[in-house]
Design brief:
With 615 residues, the chain is α+β, with helices and mostly antiparallel strands.
Length: 615
């Protein structure tokens, strides 16, 4: 590309960006602002209408109650553990009010706790309940039943809570709820038949979410929605696919688990692992209208209770964060494996493949060992960010021989590039002859063009798996690193538009930077460093064959800088560090083959002494 062509490209790019910014600021921005104001006004009006409707007719379709009012609709038992705070509703004996004490909404420790369960009646409610079902059995407890608890009862890891209910028709129900210091509830449901006839009952459990949650990752790389391990198979349905199904998805299984998952959080029912159940996933639309109800449920086999006899059904409920070591501890009732590849002896009460609640993907045989290495490095180094750097070095080390072959081939091709250009000048009109002479040149120089890309293709599954690990695991969430990086799972908070903090203004006022489109032009310091390393690595590779492709390759670092500015800092650290290791490996090989490279050119340019003015 000559100087005039370069100038034209720069002018074109500047004009295009300028027109886009002007359109966003003066046209789309005001339109979006007006539309947002209208929607907020509509929402406020609807909220007032819903509040009035709820006060007049509680439970009216589409009427949401304030959170405090929804919780106050039932007497409650307080839940207080090192990991959870909330309450259990005595009406229906529902676990429907939980906050995660170890996790906040933002990196500010004073920000609100992450809310997991929310009482029915409030918007986006999420709850779990257990019980019994039976044909022609009157007086079974349901979601309206008021259970009795000891006065002042508080559920803690050392103090279980016992709930009781007498249906007045010969059946007495006792529910003992225990909780561990983390996120596992254990429920022992006992039924005593004080009547004169046998009764047949089946245990059941339900996790329900009213309305699709707003705070979703909405990413194809993260599964959110229905999840379960039934009949030794992983059952998955994203919210959108789940909603489309007109019939419930049912699976017969012995034991297993099922529930609803978001990116970092999980609520899962775990029935008795020795008993047959039928698991079901369905989306129910209320008859009178209102948001859909996403349900994961199970029903066990009938059990007959003779007069004067009692039965007890044991089940569990996990409600909390998907911390991988914790899930594995729950998975094994015996001694859990230290790492993914460690052998274990199964027990009858094991929760099958409970760590599959984390979306490891189809390449789980790569993602799970990579996570174990990341966890090991985090333990040793005390920082997730440093662990990412160490893990990248290990991965690059494994592929070092393949990458070496690739970079050797590229260095040789760059070295003979002047010869290739001479052949193009000589045989430019005869493409067949040009190809023959080019292949002959490759053979004389012992170059295999495929070796430049084949090793890189082999590495793609592992690099994708590492990308998956850094995206789906909670260990990345709000993990700090050095300097301005306080959350490895968020975007780089620095901004080129404020000169990285030197200029004090709010870039969110400009739509494309940080406003209505979530800031596609927001560029932090780390994306710029990544873009520079990509440009440097690309410059060290042999140029493409035709001028058009060469120009496209020159623009790739710029395009990727803007694209990857939207991803999390943890992924940018991984890619940038990987680029730096690539550059180092390329530089050593290019020196060995005495190939010109941009690093030496830059050093020479800046180290070259400037001529002194004469006189």
């Amino acid at each position: 590309m000559d100087r005039d062509e370069l100038r034209n490209w720069v002018v074109f790019a500047a004009l295009a960006v300028g027109i886009l910014i002007v359109y966003q600021v003066f046209v789309y921005g005001p339109q979006s602002a007006r539309r947002t104001a209208e929607l907020r006004a509509q929402s406020a009006a609807q909220a007032q209408m819903h509040g009035a409707a709820a006060a007049a007719t509680p439970g009216a379709p589409g009427a949401f109650l304030p959170l405090g009012q929804a919780a106050a609709a039932s007497p409650r038992v307080t839940v207080a553990t090192p990991s959870l705070t909330g309450s259990i509703a005595l009406r229906g004996a529902r676990i429907d009010d939980l906050y995660l004490r170890r996790y906040h909404m933002t990196t500010d420790p004073k920000s609100p706790l992450v809310e997991l369960f929310r009482p029915e009646g409030a918007q986006y409610s999420w709850f779990a309940e257990m019980g019994w079902t039976g044909a022609n059995v009157p007086g079974l407890p349901d979601d309206h039943t008021l259970w009795t608890a000891p006065a002042g009862a508080v559920l803690t890891p050392s103090t279980p809570v016992v709930l009781t209910y007498d249906n007045g028709a010969g059946l007495k129900f006792t529910r003992t709820i225990s909780v561990d210091p983390n996120y596992m509830f254990s429920i022992a449901d006992a039924v005593t038949n004080a009547g004169t006839a046998p009764v047949s009952l089946a245990p059941e459990g339900l996790v329900a979410q009213v309305g699709k949650p707003q705070a979703l990752a909405n990413s194809n790389i993260v599964h959110e929605g229905a999840i379960g391990m039934l009949a030794h198979n992983l059952v998955l349905d994203k919210y959108a696919d789940w909603k489309k199904k007109t019939e419930p998805t049912t699976v017969a299984s012995t034991g297993g688990w099922l529930g609803i998952t978001e990116k970092y959080w999980l609520s899962a029912l775990i029935p008795d692992q020795t008993q047959p159940i039928t698991g079901a996933f369905q989306v129910v639309t209320p008859p009178g209208g209102g948001p859909e109800v996403y349900e994961a449920s199970y029903t066990g086999a009938d059990r007959t209770i003779a007069p004067g006899a009692s039965i007890t059904q044991n089940s569990r409920l996990f409600a909390g964060a998907k911390v991988v070591p914790l899930l594995r501890n729950y998975e094994y009732s015996g001694t859990p494996p230290k790492y993914y590849w460690s052998p274990v002896t199964p027990h009858p009460t094991d929760i099958p493949r409970f760590d599959q609640a984390v979306d490891w993907g189809h390449l789980f045989f790569f993602t799970q060992p990579l996570f174990d290495l990341l966890a090991l490095f985090t333990l040793k180094l005390g920082s997730v960010g440093l662990a990412i750097l160490a893990l990248t070095v290990v991965v690059r080390g494994v592929f070092f021989p393949l990458a070496n072959k690739s970079y050797e081939s590229m260095s040789k091709m760059k070295k003979i590039q002047p010869m290739v250009e001479e052949l193009k000048k000589k045989f430019g009109e005869d493409q067949t002859k040009l190809q023959q002479e080019t292949m002959a040149l490759y053979q004389r120089e012992k170059i295999n063009p495929l070796m430049g890309c084949l090793p890189m293709l082999i590495q793609i599954p592992v690099f994708y798996s590492l990308y998956k690990v850094l995206t789906v695991t909670i260990e990345m969430r709000q993990a700090p690193f050095f300097g301005w990086i306080h959350d490895l799972s968020a975007r780089d908070p620095s901004s080129i538009w404020t000169l990285f903090g030197l200029i004090h203004w709010n870039p969110a006022l400009v739509p494309l930077i940080g406003g209505y489109l979530d800031g596609p032009l927001h560029i932090g310091l780390l994306p710029l460093i990544y873009g520079f390393t990509m440009w440097l690595s690309t410059s060290m590779s042999p140029p493409a064959g035709d001028p058009t492709t060469q120009r496209m390759m020159q623009f790739l670092p710029l395009i990727f800088t803007f694209t990857l500015a939207q991803v999390t800092v943890g992924l940018l650290i991984y890619w940038t560090w990987s680029n730096l290791l690539t550059i180092l490996q390329q530089y050593v090989i290019m020196h060995r083959f005495k190939v010109e490279n941009p690093i030496d050119n830059l050093v020479t340019r800046f180290a070259k002494p400037k001529p002194r003015p004469s006189g």
